Amino acid sequence: MSAVDRPEGEAPDLWLEEVHGEAALAWVREHNARTEGELCARADYAEFRPRLKALMDARERIPYVSRIGHDFYNFWQDAEHPRGLWRRTTLASYRLAEPVWETVLDLDALAAAEGENWVWHGADVCTPARDAEGRPVWRRCLIDLSRGGADATVVREFDLVERRFIAAGEGGFTLSEAKSSASWIDADTLAVGTDFGPGSMTDSGYPRVIKAWRRGTPLADAPTIHEGEASDVSAWVSIDDTPGFERVIHGRSIDFYTTAMWLVGPDGSRREISKPADASLGFHERWAVMELRSDFVLADGTRHPAGSLLVAEADALMAQGCEAVRWTALFTPTPTCSLGGSAWTRGHVLLNLLDQVANRVEELHFDAATGGWMRRAVALPGPGTLGIGALHEPHLPDDPLAEHYWVTYADFLTPDSLMLAETGRDAPEVLKQRPRYFDAAGLVAEQRFATSADGTRVPYFVVRPKDAPMDGSTPTLLYGYGGFEVSMQPWYSGGFGLAWYERGGALAVANIRGGGEFGPAWHQAAVGEHKPRSHEDFIAVAEDLVASGLSSPARLGIMGGSNGGLLVGAAMTRRPDLFGAVVCQVPLLDMLRYHRLLAGASWMAEYGDPDQPEQRAWIERYSPYQALREGVSYPRALFTTSTRDDRVHPGHARRMVARLEALGQPVLYYENIEGGHGGAADNAQRAHLQALEFAYLWSRLGGR
User: Fold this and answer.
1) Residue 323 neighbours by CB under 8 Å, 6+ apart
2) In this protein, which residues make up the domain named Peptidase S9A N-terminal (predicted)?
């Protein structure tokens, strides 16, 4: 849409929402050239880019793996394989400093042969077949390939034994590019949700219709087995192939936080699974496991608070209903401790707890003799960020790894490590350790607290030079997110080490409301009408950094992506006097139109519905695009996005920049033509983007 043919009263820059429009892309290229011309000419960009790429390509990185049968698979990108290798090894080999890898799929070779810019998006493996001796063989899988990093993928069947794709002419399953879902019902049948034509996708752009597609038959003839509503986020099918506990579940994600579920019987009949609409419910063998987002009261008056993790007998749940069945609380939150995640070995449930934004792990197992759950704290590194993942393979009855699990650990000054733990034992085996990429001796990492506008105490982390003068002179970058119950925890970054800490910069990470640091209540305090509390918390942290003397507005920058892009956009427009630099990545910015663009409708449970007058009124009060005003001096921000981002529309960033320019404000803009919502498709693109951002930050915040 050009400026001359837009409807009367419509914003003059909507033509920039034409993602691949000729005029819009010409605008993008012009702005890219201007931004790159300025930032790439800086000496710090020339220093950062090759060093960042070398870090990303380094062989010393931890090759994280996932288990498929007896093997351990890893996806790896480096200088020789920029698109990546999908490869596998054994656990014995993985324990070695230099494992012996077998390449399963070379994405660079595939992209070259097919003339496509393929980006790896994962694989889903079929239930194993049996060989002549009855041993399980993991052979068939579905591989998701994205063009340029978009969420939409092409799905193709792959043979893990012969290491090749199975063509459609051979009876192989293939799906054209779409935001599809595909799950194995059995070796010859898929549950498929994809773009079947008009009406088959939800308003959010995800599958609404699920069909059972039999091998060798046309997809168009596949019968429909499940449907959602157009207003849903998506419809889906979940298939559990655990021997003896096979289950098929049909589900509707009604909005981002509420679901409805049905258990499907062998004859295809369905029974609705009783649960609170906003609770997350899953199954592990005989158990139903439920995580609460709101308080839950049983028929006998027992109250379980939001954030609890409950367990009950699955058969009893289906027979008695959610409010009558006997639930046992495996975890009950406290004011400072929330559930960060859980995982199951064969006989234990592992709880990853987040206590004052630091993880700790507990192992629980059911004691049949007492009918209760026994609990054990695990001695692991801390305080910092722990991740856990079980290795149990249910198709191996004598699985030697049935009680083993992965543990990862990192903090701001401690490189990532990967450990192999076993339930009932301490001192896990350290398998891999990331090298130290910077000298941490001159740095300190600490937790501080700021007071928000309504008096709420908001924690944040600071990494700074030990001898930083408290005179406001330290270049400081404040990072935040504040949405969708996502917690901001410590991470180790070689990139920040070489491009920020080495030059005397400080990093602050805000644990604001809207995140999940203290459970559902911390998140729900900043959704809908109360979303501005996230922005107030973030501003309070910024003010605390200035009040402490660590930084000053001229030396304080902010950064955030996606919902975090909305956060820094709102902070920039609300307090332009407080910041010297703004890096706004793949952002939401026009909150009166977000629900009409790509996946935006799926986030209305977080932000509200701009088509409802009352909700529109409180959204408009903080929407960054609408908040821009004439006569206000805004910091010269850098906005970044991706043409291939099919989740958050690049039109948000494009139009914000166009509006700033119309107001006579200086601004920088960079749009990667590939990259998807992550902003980059390979390490070369990632290094270029990060070098641009760090060069911009130093140009604005000072330094050597």
Assistant:
1) 274, 297, 298, 299
2) 15-432
What does the pLDDT look like over 387-403, one tens digit per residue? 999 999 999 989 999 99
SS3 142: strand
Domain 23-53+448-701 of CATH type 3.40.50.300? no
Cα separation of 421 and 348, whole Å? Answer: 13
Cα–Cα nearest to 651, from 599, 571, 586, 606? 586
Catalytic residue among 562, 602, 623, 642: 562
Both tokens of residue 256? 């981002």
Identify whether 688 is a catalytic site residue. no
Distance between CA 428 and CA 406 in Å, rounded? 9
- My answer on whether omega of the bond before 383 falls inside 30° of 0, hence cis, is yes
C-alpha 122/C-alpha 183 separation (Å) is 13
* Pairwise CA distance, residues 213 & 209, whole Å: 12
Catalytic residue list contains 70: no
pTM of the model: 0.94
470 vs 672: CA distance, rounded Å: 38
Which of 348, 649, 677, 688 is an active site residue? 677
- 311-365 pLDDT per residue, tens: 999 999 999 999 999 999 999 999 999 999 999 999 999 999 999 999 999 999 9
Helices (H), 445-574: 494-499, 520-524, 532-547, 563-574
